[in-house]
Design a protein that fits this description.
The chain is an alpha+beta fold. It is built from five helices and eight strands, in the order H-E-E-E-H-E-E-H-E-H-H-E-E. The chain has two domains: 101 residues, 2-Layer Sandwich (HIT family, subunit A), CATH 3.30.428.10; 69 residues, Arc Repressor Mutant, subunit A (Orthogonal Bundle). The strands form two sheets. Strands 1-2-3-5-4 form a five-stranded antiparallel β-sheet. A three-stranded antiparallel β-sheet has the order 6-8-7.
Length: 185
């Protein structure tokens, strides 16, 4: 096993830093995230040090994937979340906080899903107004980043709901509106 003496996750593997272990085999270790987003938020790592997906060996990646499935099933069984995200970040620009290849399982509580649906409904209400809404206004309403607002417009509004979105440059910036409710639901 390759280890980096400065890596927090390598220190957890070595037993130098305590953790709440969920699963362990010869190649991987799964433990609860100390900066938990929701109940059941866990990390699955290779016991060998790989800083990110660009450095990990395919066999180690496969071992992490197998353990992730086991942990995800256990989390799903234990807390019955509304949904479960599998997240893997590479580099500081992707919010990877420890340079050791991790796979996170993030259980989504029903309340979080309801808050998200509530934000989507509020966005739709702004888009249905005759004056429409700018990206900035939708960001202020939801606290979403710009790319998330754009994904909502393209993915949820246009594709899933089948609503046409029109935009026009106006005094306050590019304004988006729902053009019609003829298509979709």
């Amino acid at each position: 096993m390759v280890a980096d003496p400065e890596c927090v996750f390598c220190k957890i593997v070595a037993g130098q830093i305590p953790s709440f272990k969920l699963y362990e085999d010869d190649e991987t270790l799964a433990f609860l995230d100390i900066n938990s987003v929701h109940d059941g938020h866990s990390l699955v790592i290779s016991k060998s040090h790989y800083p990110n997906v660009f450095a990990i060996e395919p066999e180690a990646f496969a071992a992490v994937a197998r353990s992730t499935v086991k942990v995800a099933r256990a989390v799903n069984s234990a807390i019955a979340p509304h949904g479960l995200n599998l997240v893997q970040a590479n580099g500081p620009g992707a919010a990877q906080s420890v340079p050791h290849f991790p796979r996170s399982t993030v259980a989504q509580a029903k309340a979080a899903a309801q808050r998200h649906a509530s934000k989507q409904s509020a966005c739709l209400a702004l888009l249905e107004r005759s004056e429409g809404a700018t990206i900035r206004e939708l960001q202020q309403l939801t606290n979403w980043q710009e790319h998330s607002v754009r994904a909502f417009l393209a993915g949820t509004v246009k594709t899933k709901l089948g609503l046409d979105i029109v935009s026009a440059k106006e005094g306050r910036g590019r304004v988006y509106r729902i053009a019609s409710r003829q298509r979709g639901r």
